[in-house]
Amino acid sequence: MNVLLVGSGAREHAIAKILCAQTSAMQLNCFAATHNPGIKKLAANFLVGNINNVHEVVEFARQHPVEFAIIGPEAPLEHGLADALWRLGVPVIGPKQKLAQIETSKSFARDLMKKYQIPGAPRYQVFQDIKGVEEFLRDLGEEGYVIKANGLMGGKGVKVAGEHLHSFDEALDFCRQVQASNQIFVIEEKLIGQEFSLMGFCDGKQVFIMPCVQDHKRAFQGDRGPNTGGMGSYSDANHLLPFLSAQDVEAARQINQQVMLALQNEFDEKYIGILYGSFIATRNGIAVIEFNARFGDPEAMNVLSILESNFADLCRAMINNSLTTNLVRFAPMATVCKYVVPEGYPDNGLKNAALDISAVKNPSQLYLASVNEQEGQLFTAGSRAVAVVGVAKTITEAEVLAEAEVMRIRGRVFHREDIGTSALIQQRIEQMRMLRAGSEL
Ligand code: AMP
Ligand code: GLY
């Protein structure tokens, strides 16, 4: 069996690992952005190139015929890689360019929700220029707004009032900056609550959800410091989260389902791949922060490490529009994922620092990301280096496993000790309890 994998972070390492572990005759062809030694070891063919250059990837797919392709990150989707591969006759896990606008254009996503009356959207307005901005900001209140550049900005395009923006003047300056880069922008109501990720497999008919996951964006303990790509994440054995009820998750699932159907209706095209709703539980119920058209990173490591059904079969069923719950089975286990990152990350992550993972006890739960290998020695490459996952009956036990494993990794690196600890989870539960209590007053 031959599969093309596009991308080379820990998320893609997790995809590569499960494909190779579950299917003995797997021939993996990886078109990578970086030299990920973990994926390289598993792949029959491994080429580093520009994953956003559709022509280069298509050429690779021509040379190495495959049954289907999986596109890991969002940027190639925006460049129309899924469209090009389908044209070549290669089915793709990952939506076509137009459908991927659900992630690549914030205004498109909000307008779609409005048009199809999908619940969970905050008040928002789309702006082409500065006209009317101040009025809307004042309307939302001094600490009540979020400003988002429309397109993909690698996590740098969103500024939250009270966190990144401290006055209307700062807010207007940011809007001018975005406008100067020729982008439109969305201003929306700031939502207060607990964020969570609910990803689903889409077969063009239905969204089959995965366990809920909570990511941690801030670099340092106690949710302090700059935003990162995600420092770690956890999921619970019951596939909900300690601060979410089954009804909350059902509300989020329905939103994902409605969005998939709205997209298909809009473009008369099937959505094949992952739809990842980034939600927030507020005092008024479940609201939507944004959507992504791919697996989350680190969330992919949480869910793929407990997927019991065969992932290649699941992918085939998505492509054939024939997914069933039996093909989307997850073990009733909790997971905690922690990222080990180089000193200075995210602003100025140390590069070329030696990293020693030889003492790790369970390498099957270790996923390599931004690292290089030279003569058997790993070196940091500036971004998130290694993800470690603990799997156990409870979040607390999974945290202990992940933490013990992280401590076996040596180098000029750091991680968040607090992710998955009962102290942090109790805080989340308490915050949610207080928010909800407020709504009943
Ligand atoms: P995004 O790039 O849309 O995921 O935004 C990055 C982060 O900004 C999210 O993880 C949230 O923490 C925050 N954010 C985005 N939109 C909102 C909103 N409407 N209210 C509160 N926080 C938000
Ligand atoms: N976990 C955040 C993301 O994948 O976008």
Short description:
The protein has 441 residues and is of the alpha+beta class.
Task: Give a written overview of the molecule.
With 441 residues, this protein is an alpha+beta fold. It folds into three domains: 2-94, Rossmann fold (3-Layer(aba) Sandwich); 123-189, Dna Ligase, domain 1 (2-Layer Sandwich), CATH 3.30.1490; 194-423, D-amino Acid Aminotransferase, Chain A, domain 1 (2-Layer Sandwich). 34% of the residues lie in helices and 27% in strands. The chain contains 14 helices and 25 strands. It has helices at residues 10-22, 37-42, 54-63, 75-78, 81-88, 97-104, 106-115, 133-140, 168-180, 246-267, 299-304, 311-319, 395-407, 422-440; strands spanning 2-6, 27-32, 45-48, 68-71, 92-93, 124-127, 145-149, 158-160, 185-189, 194-203, 207-209, 214-215, 218-220, 224-227, 232-235, 272-282, 285-292, 334-342, 351-356, 366-368, 371-374, 377-381, 386-392, 410-411, 413-414. Strands 12, 15, 18, 20, 23 and 25 form a six-stranded antiparallel sheet that branches. Helix 3 runs parallel beside helix 5. The protein is globular and about 60 Å long. It starts with a strand and ends with a helix. The model has no long low-confidence stretch (mean pLDDT 96). Bound molecules: adenosine monophosphate and glycine. Adenosine monophosphate (AMP) binds next to strand 7, strand 8 and strand 17.
- CATH topology heading of the largest domain: D-amino Acid Aminotransferase, Chain A, domain 1
- Describe the largest sheet: 6 strands, antiparallel
Tally the structural domains: 3
CATH structural class of the largest domain:
Alpha Beta
Average pLDDT score: 96
Q: What's the total number of strands?
A: 25
First-last Cα distance: 59 Å
Low-confidence stretches: none
Report the bound ligands by name, code or SMILES.
adenosine monophosphate, glycine
- Name the overall outline: globular
Q: In the CATH hierarchy, what is the architecture of the largest domain at level 2?
A: 2-Layer Sandwich
Portion in beta strands: 25-35%
Number of helices: 14
Rounded Rg: 21 Å
Global structural class: alpha+beta
CATH superfamily of the largest domain: ATP-grasp fold, B domain
